[in-house]
Design brief:
The structure holds two protein chains of two kinds. By secondary structure, chain A is an all-beta fold. Helices cover 0% and strands 56% of the residues of chain A. Chain A contains no helices and 13 strands. In chain A, strands 2, 4, 5, 6, 9, 12 and 13 form a seven-stranded mixed beta sheet that branches. The N and C termini of chain A lie far apart (33 Å). By secondary structure, chain B is mostly beta strands. In chain B, the strands form two sheets. In chain B, strands 2, 4, 5, 9, 10 and 11 form a six-stranded mixed beta sheet that branches. In chain B, strands 1-3-8-7-6 form a five-stranded antiparallel beta sheet, with no helix packed on it. Chain B is globular, with a radius of gyration of 13 Å. The chains are: A mainly beta, B mainly beta. Chains A and B meet through strand 4, strand 5, strand 9, strand 11 and strand 12 of A and strand 5 and strand 9 of B.
């Protein structure tokens, strides 16, 4: 199916374990993003990528690692999971194009991964 | 102080009511203003996108931006139970990242 897909949808893990969340998009969008969503905080940016092999930190990058060897994939790894990383994680992709008023973009989100760290 | 403040609600209204959702922001560099809608256990989806101050209408939805007051609003006319969701404002400056409000949970009662 076309679009942006995240896997797994649900994950339970233990403190200290490594966990990788997958994100795949079929639009060939240049930009991809990882957010976490927690009650009272809304969506907070963890990492983003402007193209393959180009990544940059967002607002809350500590404890996370990303890579982007191919345009369509943007995995997020928790190297040693902590309870504070229990959250819902969303991946998004977008393209930027010139429109009236400047560079326009629309971010398309996946359905999310619910991660519980016990 | 957060860059974007949004009343978390929850907000409960009867079907047919006019709903007003609001965000305030502190960074005058924000130039692009969006509203996303998020249904329970789903990802956010773009609802409205505006660039300049003023109003933009799309069906029952109107987005309003007042840059001088750093205040943005989303109005929903003739609200329906299917509008029940969390609404997130999102703002962007010259960078590629979005800054989101914390979201307002809306329930429209039939």
């Amino acid at each position: 199916d076309a679009g942006i897909t995240q896997s797994p949808r649900y994950k339970i893990t233990e403190t200290g374990r490594q966990v990788t969340l997958m994100c795949h998009q079929t639009w060939s969008h240049s930009y991809m993003f990882w957010y976490r969503q927690d009650l009272g905080h809304g969506l907070r940016l963890i990492y983003y990528s402007a193209a393959a092999d180009i990544t940059d930190k967002g607002e809350v990058p500590d404890g996370y690692v990303v890579s982007r060897s191919k345009t369509e994939n943007f995995p997020l790894t928790l190297e040693s999971a902590t309870r504070s990383q229990t959250s819902v994680y969303f991946c998004a992709s977008s393209e930027f194009f010139l429109a009236g008023g400047g560079a326009k973009n629309i971010q398309y989100f996946g359905a999310g991964t619910r991660l519980s760290v016990l | 102080q957060k860059e974007v403040e949004q009343d978390p609600g929850p907000l409960s209204v009867p079907e047919g009511a006019i709903v007003s959702l609001n965000c305030t922001y502190s960074n005058s560099a924000f130039q692009y203003f969006m509203w996303y809608r998020q249904y329970s256990r789903k990802g956010p989806e773009l609802l409205m996108y505006t660039y300049s101050s003023g109003n933009k209408e799309d069906g029952r939805f109107t987005a309003q931006v007042d840059k001088s007051s750093k205040y943005i609003s989303l109005f929903i006319r003739d609200s329906q139970p299917s509008d029940s969701a969390t609404y997130l404002c999102a703002l962007r400056g010259s960078a590629r990242q979005l800054t989101f409000g914390s979201g307002t949970q809306l329930t429209v009662l039939p």
